[in-house]
Amino acid sequence: MKTGRSLAYVVVCASVAVFLFAALAEAGTVHVVRPGDTLYLLSRQYGVSVDELARINSVRDPRNLQVGTALVIPGAAGEGTVHMVSPGDTLYSIAVRYGTTIQAIRSANDLTGDVLLPGMKLIIPVSGASQGSGAIAIPWSQVDKLFPRGSTALVTDVRTGLSFTVRRRGGWAHADVEPLTARDTQTLKRIYGGAWSWSRRPIVVQVSSYRIAASMNGMPHGGSSISDNGFPGHHCIHFLGSTTHGTRRLDPAHQAAVKEAVGK
């Protein structure tokens, strides 16, 4: 009985440690210890106190850091973040989510294959695609699933920094959306200088933890499902590879705005 209880205690403690590490990593970044690293040098590099680094990472001997250990650096923007592998995760889906590459993830974690086990901690390196606006270009076929009909998303205009919330009404070649409230409609109109417009603008659409590069127009048209938002219709949001509903072709202006949103 004691053996069973001891084993259960170890499992619980390990689960708690994994949870805490993941939660802390989301609030900062991760530094992989290299030969010659000390908490003092890392504190100078990241602007964090030695005591804070030791406390966050439960370091007992600040003079003896094990090479290859992943240390959480609170509030910093350094080498990457930590992703806890969930059932169904693949290297491809993780790379798309964080705007990096499969090879970069393999290199950061010394992986030689594609097998991932639930509960694994993967270091996600910072990539060029995740800088600037922080948006990544995800193909429309995937966005269509990430942003289903009836769900909401936060839209941020890249050029002004103004944000508003939309709800997806429909659309099969791109997303047909509506401002969620009258205040959201006012923000959208403000982005366009106080007048509705078909002009394409680069935006970032935040769905869950994804920041997706996109393009919108600001002209109400067609049907609507929200009666009290002051927006007579819906407007369109295009993503990488989206087409128009009429021609079923790529809209060059929308695709150019998507590239601008991702910083290319």
Describe this structure in words.
It is a single chain. It is built from 8 helices and 10 strands. It has a 6-stranded antiparallel barrel. It has a two-stranded antiparallel sheet with strand order 1-2. It is 33% helix and 24% strand. The longest helix has 26 residues, at 2-27. By secondary structure, it is of the alpha+beta class. The chain has helices spanning 2-27, 39-46, 50-57, 91-98, 102-109, 140-146, 182-191, 252-262; strands at residues 28-32, 70-74, 80-84, 121-125, 152-157, 163-170, 175-179, 197-207, 210-218, 235-238.
CATH architecture of the largest domain: Beta Barrel
> According to CATH, what is the class of the largest domain?
Mainly Beta
Q: Main sheet?
A: 6 strands, antiparallel, barrel
| Radius of gyration of CA atoms, rounded to a whole number | 23 Å
Strand order of the largest sheet: 5-6-7-10-9-8
Strand share of the residues? 15-25%
Number of domains: 3
Count of extended strands: 10
Topology order in helix (H) and strand (E) letters: HEHHEEHHEHEEEHEEEH
Q: Which segments are poorly predicted (pLDDT under 50) over 5 or more consecutive residues?
A: 7-28, 127-132
Query: What structural class do the secondary elements suggest?
Result: alpha+beta
CATH topology (level 3) name of the largest domain: Thrombin, subunit H
Shape by Cα distribution: elongated
Q: Cα distance, first to last residue?
A: 62 Å
Helix content class: 25-40%
Helix run count: 8
Average predicted confidence as pLDDT: 80
